[in-house]
Amino acid sequence: MLKVGDKAPDFALPSTDGTIMRLKDLKGKKTVLYFYPKDNTSGCTKEACAFQENLAGVKKAGAAIVGVSADSIASHQKFAGKFGLQFPLISDESREMLSAYGVWKQKSMYGRKYFGIERTTFVIDEKGIVRHIFEKVKVNGHVDEVLTVLRSKE
Question: How many CB atoms lie within 10 A of CB 90?
Fold first, then answer.
């Protein structure tokens, strides 16, 4: 599992903006990299919309937002279009990035064990170093927590 102070693993994955996004392309600005389980589910929709509603504040703090799940790029594009998301979502169908960031975990629901994405947000600095990790994120109030961290690093 990544720790604060570690170099964030680079990636090269398809993005909703039609490019292959790499972490190194984001160097020079802070990055809010948030991992979520699935497009168009209630919690994930609420989280994405909260980031969208606070996009100006995140940008004012000198940061970019990037959402990540294992859904296909086509699913991401529909999700982003439906909710007017103006930040990129990247698709990790191979789950390599999810594993590198330690968010692909065994979970349990109603006694059934399965693997899935644990909702987690990383704040990465301008040099690609992990500065804060929010694990097992609760959606309500999460964006406010992220903004507090971003503003404290200004």
Answer: 23
Residue 6 maps to a domain: no
Residue 1 near residue 124 (C-beta atoms within 8 A): no
Task: List, by residue number, the catalytic residues.
Answer: 44
Task: Give the start-end residues of each E strand in the chain.
Answer: 12-14, 20-22, 30-35, 63-69, 89-91, 104-109, 112-117, 120-124, 130-134
Q: What's the pTM? A: 0.93
* Cα–Cα distances in angstroms (integers) from residue 145 to residues 45, 75, 112, 148, 152, in the given order: 18, 28, 31, 5, 11
Query: pLDDT (tens digit, 0 to 9) for every residue of the chain, 154 residues total?
Result: 899 999 999 999 999 989 999 998 888 889 999 999 999 998 899 999 999 999 999 999 999 999 999 999 999 999 999 999 999 999 999 999 999 999 988 877 788 887 888 999 999 999 999 999 999 989 899 999 999 999 985 4
Is 66 contained in some domain? yes
In a domain, 135, yes or no: yes
Separation CA 74–CA 137 (nearest Å): 25
